[in-house]
Write a structure and sequence with these properties.
By secondary structure, chain A is an alpha/beta fold. Chain A has helices at 40-47, 100-105, 115-124, 140-153, 170-185, 197-203, 222-225, 230-238, and strands at 2-11, 14-24, 29-33, 55-60, 63-67, 83-88, 156-162, 189-193, 206-211, 214-219. Classes of the chains: A alpha/beta, B mainly alpha.
Chain lengths: 248, 219
């Protein structure tokens, strides 16, 4: 389990995260929702220790890290056949002088890539056509699929995904989410930021709603139909029922 | 045209000596300048205060002094001050190698400093060690970015070897001037010289343009 306790973050003296505590269990999908600028990406980066929080404590796989501290923590990303924690950023950041295939395979060390998994991902994400192209020759959606595949290839025990389906076609979004559900069944803990609220409503084990750097409400998918806080209610009402409420 | 070939044939021994001296000087300036510049550039980026700042000050000062003045200063007053006498050939190499190194270092430092931090973060998240990030990601990226401008600098350095003639180095320009004073055919002699430099420079300049176009996606 990944545990964040009393996490604070600030940039230039401006508080961005305020005393946030949460847990990311293995084998569950935790979805983070909220309006733009609410601190979702900052929370993802703080919880995965991509960026050190200004204060609080983060425990990853039994190892606790207290903040503030100056040195970055990177052991959670070490790859030894599998990775403790995998992250896909919103801006993807594929290495530009590597082909897409190299971007996927270069991080893997040891006896070579898991060819079964590679073929499976190529098939699910439909990568074949542009696998040997350079990222700058690909569309945003294609780059997004490569970034997702790169993280999946590292066999992480926890996956942190920041808006990774924003440029994908509906059928590919469905394929990615279906694969995430398979990963959940396999015991992977998934923490995902998405504006795709149908996914949150239908698949998430826990939904967390954030606003202004604080967790306003969290719970099972029922909170989408019956929000307790006025902020989540207002947020869902602002969507005018367009993105949710088709749960069958 | 026939006249040009006649002159070149008649003075071929002299021209070959001049070409040899020019090429030797150019090679030395390139090798020393690029090697020294690469090391200085990397350390300037790694230690911006201790090394980067002094290097920038030196580059700034050197940039304000004409190449010829620097060469003369190094050849006459500097050697007088030290009580030594070094051949013009070596003084020219030293002067231009220093200038080359400073220019190359500036390019490398700039590109290392401007290297997108998100690629480093992305690589860290993929489990790359700091050494792997430098070797597999940062260095290839920076080399691709600096290569076009470094090649252009090398062309300018090759052209600048002509200044060596002013401190009695028997490079190609000095030989050509000497031949011209004997045959007095400036159009033929100096046009041949221009063609010689074009033949050497154009492929390099073309390579620079090609690489700049090829790697423009990195910008």
């Amino acid at each position: 389990m990944i545990i964040g306790e009393h996490i604070n973050q600030q940039f230039g003296g401006v508080p961005v995260l305020n005393d946030i505590s949460l847990k990311i269990p293995k084998g569950e999908i935790t979805v983070l929702i909220g309006p733009s600028g609410s601190g979702k990406t900052t929370l993802l980066k703080s919880l995965s220790l991509v960026e050190n929080p200004a204060g609080g404590r983060v425990t990853i796989g039994g190892e606790s890290y207290s903040f503030p501290r100056t040195e970055p923590v990177r052991t959670q990303f070490n790859f030894d056949g599998s990775q403790q924690l995998g992250v896909v950023f919103q801006n993807l950041d594929l290495i530009p002088h590597w082909t897409n295939r190299e971007n996927m395979l270069m991080p893997l060390k040891g006896p070579g890539p898991d060819s079964v998994k590679l073929e499976q991902l190529i098939d699910i994400l439909k990568l074949e056509r542009f696998l040997d192209k350079y990222p700058h020759r690909c569309s945003r959606g294609e780059q997004q699929r490569i970034a997702i595949a790169r993280a999946f290839m590292l066999n992480p025990q926890y996956l942190f995904l920041d808006e990774v389906t924003s440029a994908l076609d509906p059928e590919l979004i469905a394929a990615v989410f279906k694969y995430l559900m398979e990963l959940r069944t396999a015991g992977i803990g998934i923490f995902i930021i998405t504006h795709f609220l149908l996914f949150a409503q239908n698949v998430a084990d826990t939904i967390i709603f954030m606003q202004n750097g604080s967790i306003i409400e969290q719970g099972k998918s029922a909170i989408m139909n019956n929000p307790q806080s006025p902020q989540l209610k207002a947020f869902l009402e602002s969507l005018d029922g367009i993105l949710i409420n088709n749960r069958s | 045209m026939k006249e040009v070939f006649e002159i070149i044939y008649r003075y071929k021994a002299e021209f070959l000596i001049g070409i040899g001296v020019t090429l030797r000087m150019t090679l030395c300036i390139w090798i020393v300048g690029i090697a020294l510049g690469a090391v200085t550039g990397v350390f300037s980026a790694k230690f911006p205060k201790v090394i980067g700042l002094p290097v920038r000050v030196i580059t700034f000062l050197l940039g304000g002094v004409p190449v010829l003045v620097f060469l003369y200063w190094l050849h006459y007053p500097f050697q007088t001050l030290l009580g030594i006498q070094i051949e013009g050939f070596y003084t020219t190499i030293a002067a231009l190698a220093i200038i080359n190194a400073m220019l190359v270092a500036e390019q490398i430092r700039n590109n290392i400093e401007q290297f997108p931090k998100n690629y480093i973060l992305s690589a860290e998240v993929c489990g790359f060690s700091p050494a792997e990030i430098v070797l597999k990601i940062q260095a290839p990226h920076v080399i691709r970015q600096v290569l076009p401008s470094v090649i252009v600098i090398q062309v300018v350095m090759m052209h600048s070897t002509l200044f060596g003639s002013l401190i009695s180095v028997d490079e190609i320009f000095r030989i050509a001037s000497r031949v011209n004073s004997e045959v007095y055919k400036p159009v033929a002699v100096f046009s041949s010289l221009a063609v010689f430099f074009l033949i050497l420079s154009l492929p390099l300049t073309a390579l620079s343009y090609f690489l700049k176009k090829k790697y423009r996606y990195l910008i």
